[in-house]
Amino acid sequence: MELQQARLLLEQKEKYLxxxxxxxxxHIQDLSQVNxxxxxxxxxxxxxxxxxKRKSAQLEQEIKDKExxxxxxxxxxxxxxxxNDPSFHKRSKTFSKGxxxxxxxxxxxxxxxxxQKEINPVVETPVKVEEEKKDVFEIEMGNxxxxxEEEILQELxxxxxxxIVNKYN
Length: 169
Description:
coiled coil
């Protein structure tokens, strides 16, 4: 009888150990699947980080390019001073101080000025007044008397603003 009880107890423990082994095997499989998913996510994260770094570098380069374009546009603002019209000098100085600071406004201003010159010819002022205005203008903007309209438009085309230039031509 004791022998039968011992066998029964042994069979129960054996059955329990088999169930425990099966449960552990299932947990190990689950853990390996989780580990694979983690590895996959780590790879995705690394790819996203690389993509983010590339995009970040690309955006930084675009910002630098746009800053260069902005600097060139601001340089072009000084080229507007080739007129002998004293009121033009006043307007271009106002423009250069940033009161009208967009390319579209610049081109609109330039287009209006061009049309105004064609409709209303510039009235010559006395030489002395003209020289004073020119001196003040050259100090602020530099000598721009040799700059032509075509050079300004070409510079804008070089900046990639051809659509805007064509719109105002």
